[in-house]
Structures are given as structure tokens and as C-alpha cells.
Amino acid sequence: MRLDSIAFRYRRRSPWILRDVTLDLPPGTVAEVTGRNGAGKSTLLRLVAGLRDPRRGTVSGRPERVGYAPERFPVDQPFSVRSYLAHMAAVHGVPASAADPWIERLALGRLLDTRLPELSKGSAQKVGLVQALLHSPGLLVLDEPFSGLDAQIRDALPGLIADLAGEGATVVVSDHQRVVEHLPGVRRVRVADGTVTAADDDGGWTVLEVVVRSDQADDLETKLRADGHEVRRTQR
Ligand SMILES: Nc1ncnc2c1ncn2[C@@H]1O[C@H](COP(=O)(O)OP(=O)(O)OP(=O)(O)O)[C@@H](O)[C@H]1O
């Protein structure tokens, strides 16, 4: 699919969030979307998924089946995991059993009878992923899917994404934590100043060594990641 000269703002006369975005996303692409907090990553993902229409520009070639997992899965719904996923399967016109392989891969089996409001953040995130995956989407849009996931699933998810792309799906992921960046062939897209650039083309990279007190390291790491920087920890 392709986004061509897209501009978007949420309301008339409110500031433009995206001003000139052109992006090619051929089948089999995994695109990692990065950028500062508030840069417009979630907005871009909603436009890609078709949840919002651009004010200007065109979107063409979007695959028919789209899976979208929002940054925060809305848990304020009075259903069990099982009935919610069965409902979502029906919405997409597939049998409820279509969710089973994903329930297994994301280790959600023991939570099927739990009600959505009672789920932990990570488990809710997994339900959000299963509902996005169960109808074998040709376009999968994941907004910060890794936040709150337990380590085992967090490590397994990039492989799962690569498998889907290998089967021809287009996958667009916003990813503060840079979990997918090591997948072979991943396209890095950076959102800044209302537009997107290929993250690998914007002037090269500098490795900066920062020494920080241990009790401040977590805070600094969080801030740097929120600004879109890659952070690697080394022990002294
Ligand atoms: N539904 C909305 N209505 C109005 N403004 C919105 C809406 N959603 C987002 N915005 C505004 O659009 C801008 C971009 O927000 P967006 O959530 O797309 O950024 P982001 O890069 O995903 O941020 P973060 O990393 O914090 O999730 C922000 O100024 C935000 O306040």
C-alpha cells in the first residue's frame, strides 16, 4: 500500500499533526515507526490502518483485511477474554477457533474466563494482539505492542511478526523499545516535524557514552527512549 502526500489534523483549525507524508509499504514489509513522544506515531498508524482519513493526500492499495492493536487496549468492556475474542472473530467473519493458535502462542489459555477489566496490562495487551491477528490480516498495525509484555512473549513477538511478513503481510509497528529493529530487512521510519524519513538516511549515527549514577539510570534510559534514541547498557 502507499500513502501519498498525506496531511492530517484532528480538527479544523487545530495544528497539523502530519503535513507531508509519503510512504510505500509493499507486501512483506515490516516498518518500525519511531519518533519523540507526541510526534504523531499513533496518528500515522491510525491513518495506515484506515481508522482515520487524511485531510489531504491519498491512501491506496490497503489490504482488505486489517488488524490493529492500539497502544492501550480498552479493557472497560464487561466480557470475558473468551467471549470478546469470539465476538471479534464473528465481526471478521471467521470461526472463533481462528483465535486458538494465537491464544496458544501468546500464552493466554489460562485467562480465557477472566473478564477484561481484571486483566493485567500485559495480558490486556495480548488480547489486543490476538484480536488483531485472528483473521490473518494482510495489514497488521501494532501501536507499541511490547509495552507491558512479559519477557517470553516479548522475545517471541518479533519472530511472529517476521513469519507474517514472510507470508506477504505488511506489518507497521511503533516501537519505543526497538524490539523489531534487529529483524532482517526491517524498514525504519522516523516521524518528526509532521513528516516521515527513513531513519537510516538522516545523517548517520553517533554512539555517545553517558555515565550516570546507578539510581538515576532507569529514569534516564526511559527519557532517552521516549525521545526516540537507542539505548544500550554496559556495566562498569
Ligand atoms: N484523538 C485526538 N484528538 C486530538 N488530538 C490528538 C488526538 N490524538 C492525538 N492527538 C494529538 O496529536 C499529536 C500526536 O499524537 P500521537 O499520539 O499521534 O503521537 P505519538 O508520537 O504516538 O506519541 P506517544 O509516543 O506519546 O504515544 C499530539 O499533539 C496529540 O496531543
From TrEMBL:
Alphabetized SMART domains for the sequence: AAA
Pfam hit, one: ABC_tran
Entry-linked InterPro entries: AAA+_ATPase, ABC_transporter-like_ATP-bd, ABC_Transporter_VariousFunc, P-loop_NTPase
The protein, known as: ABC-type multidrug transport system ATPase subunit
Positions of the ABC transporter domain: 1-218
Top-level lineage group: Bacteria
Keywords associated with the record: ATP-binding, Nucleotide-binding, Transport
Gene Ontology MF, one: ATP binding
Lineage, opening ranks: Bacteria, Bacillati, Actinomycetota, Actinomycetes, Streptosporangiales
Coiled-coil ranges (or none): none
